[in-house]
Structures are given as C-alpha cells and as structure tokens.
Amino acid sequence: MMKKIAILGSTGSIGTQTLEVVRYNKDIQVTALAAGSNVKLLEEQIREFKPRLACLWDEEKAKELRAAVADMDVKVASGMEGLMEAAVSPEADLVVTAVVGMIGIRPTIAAMEAGKDIALANKETLVTAGHIIMPLAREKGVKLLPVDSEHSAIFQCLQGAAGNPLHKILLTASGGPFRGFTREQLEKVRLEDALKHPNWSMGHKITIDSSTMVNKGLEVMEARWLFGVEMDQVQVVVQPASIIHSMVEFEDGAVIAQLGTPDMKLPIQYALYYPERRFLPGDRLDFEKLTKISFEVPDMETFRGLKLAYEAGRRGGTLPTVFNAANEMAVAMFLERKINYLTIVDMIEGAMEHHCVKPSPDVAQILEAEQETYDYITSKWN
C-alpha cells in the first residue's frame, strides 16, 4: 500500500534526509512540500517528487516559484495559510513536521485535528505546547512518532515494555564541540568553531544549540511530554561518540539502550514505517573495532543553558516558551555576528527573569509570550 506524506520543512536538514528515505523506498508518495525561502531546492524537489501542493513562507519567493514550476501540476501557496493547507492536505496520511521554531505549533495542531499521524521533528511544539498537544493526540487517536534521534531511541526502547512504568530516561548528549571547556575558553569561541559538530551534520541553528547544550535542554522538556514523566526523571548523560542514542531505566533497575551510527535517516525511516523495520543502506556499528563506550556527567555550571532548561521545564506555563524564544533570537544574532557566544545564554537567563509566568497557556498566550520575549530582547540588547 502506498504511504502518503506531507513534509513541512522540506529544504532543511531533516526534510532533505526524509526525501532521501523516500527516494530509496518506492512506496511513499509525497503529497505536499513546505519550506521557508529556498526557491531553487524546492523547485528541484517538486520536479522529482511531484507533490500536488507546495508552500514557501515568503510570498515574494512563492511568486518566483510559481513562475519556475508553471509547467507542473502543482499549486504554490505561501505564508501560514499555505503551511496550514500543507499540514491538512487530504491526501496525506502522515505529516513530517520538520520546520524550525514555534512556527510549527499551529500546523501541527491543525494536522492532528485533521486526523493525521505526526512524525515530529519540531521539538518546539512540545516544549511550548506539550500540555495542549499530548491530550489532543489522545483525543484524536493520532500517533506522535518522534524523529529526534534521542526521542526515537527512547520510543524504540519502550517497544515491548508492556505498559511497565519508566523509572527514568537517560537522555544522551555528545557534549558538542566544546565538551570539557571552561567558561574562560568559551569566551573565545567564534562562530566558525560553534558550527563544527563532532558527530552530526545538522542545520546551523541546531548545531549552535548543540554546542551550548540548549538543544539538550529542549530535548529534556520534549521527552517529559512525549513519555509522560517529570522533568527530574530525565537525566542527561554525556556519551561523546553518539553511539548510544538514549536509554530507559525501569522500576526493577533494568536499563535498555538503543545503539547505532549517528545517522538521522534511521529515526526518520522508523517514524515513516512504524512499527515495521526496513533495510536502510549505510554504515553499521562494528563491535570488533568498538573497544569502549565512555560516559560523563554534563557540566551544568559552565553550560548554563541546560540548567536553565530544567528550571523552565519545572516551572512550566509560559516559561518554556520564553526559554525557547530567547534562544531563537539569541542564536540568530550570534549567526549574524551581532553578539558573542556566551551572550546567548545570558539573553535566555535575562528573558526568563523578566517574564511573569502564565500557567496552562492556550496557543494565543504562548504566541504572546514569544512576542513579548522578542520585544524584551530587542529593547535590551539592540
């Protein structure tokens, strides 16, 4: 049977790797593609995968795309309206949400309300709106299939658990390019240094987030919602080689881990075909060459972004939104060389201290908190 999918964020790292999986498997049909502003790559994707609908966030770029694919049978939409249309496209069975940032919340909710299963790669959706998303998934009877390597690993470890409760989640982290650095060393970090991840090939924002360990903090908050645990049941463990992608510990002390090479196509394909496991080309772990797997405790004083994430997750309400929004803006400024590296976390901390937390926010209040955070940072640091 042909599986039909829509991909939100098709020109990004997860989106392009999803299309690699589609290219290898001939029983997946792409019904809709959505991207930000990359006209050239989206045109190439349209010509290869022939979706019925394509969307670019930027309306001017969408006009350019319409002209470029005028010979194709495809509708080109734009903005949030186009993104929502792609999310609820009637042909799709599953929506891959791979857009970056809180822009993914409304399309994800719309897709779920339309009865679509979600392959979730947009962690901000659960970080900021997990209290809305998880009950909605249960109400609509849709699957939330994690695509992040760590959350996919946890999900895989739980198969066959027969409903036994988790004692804790052991969420692994590589430690990024600055593992073991002191604060004094971090003061000298340049943009070029922060964009060199030792194990994974990712987009610029998530690579910076990994280097600050803010990304791991977001993943802790995401895991809390996905797997129904408390923040303090999620323990971050540094595993520098990125061989163990995460582990779960049960009440009897048994620990189950998922291992593999650092390749995002595995969790992507697992989400697309769950519960089936298909052959995936690529490298395999060689246990004759693998002599040891080492672990470290994360340094939350030097990498304060992780410590602040635990604080935001414990307090909840709109504070995770503030944490996320402040980081988004700070990383954008760092990528533009407007601030230095350590200022990223200083901005997050300042925004959290400034914010008056609203408990159990609805989507409108979440988006208001996001805008308030942007306004605060603009007034404070520009």
TrEMBL record:
It comes from the Bacteria. Keywords: Isomerase, Isoprene biosynthesis, Magnesium, Manganese, Metal-binding, NADP, Oxidoreductase. Residues 144-227 form the 1-deoxy-D-xylulose 5-phosphate reductoisomerase C-terminal domain. Pathway: Isoprenoid biosynthesis; isopentenyl diphosphate biosynthesis via DXP pathway; isopentenyl diphosphate from 1-deoxy-D-xylulose 5-phosphate: step 1/6. Mn(2+) binds at D148, E150, E219. Residues 259-373 form the DXP reductoisomerase C-terminal domain. NADPH binds at T11, G12, S13, I14, G36, N38, N122, E124, G203. Its cofactor is Mg(2+); Mn(2+). Belongs to the DXR family. This is 1-deoxy-D-xylulose 5-phosphate reductoisomerase. The gene is dxr.
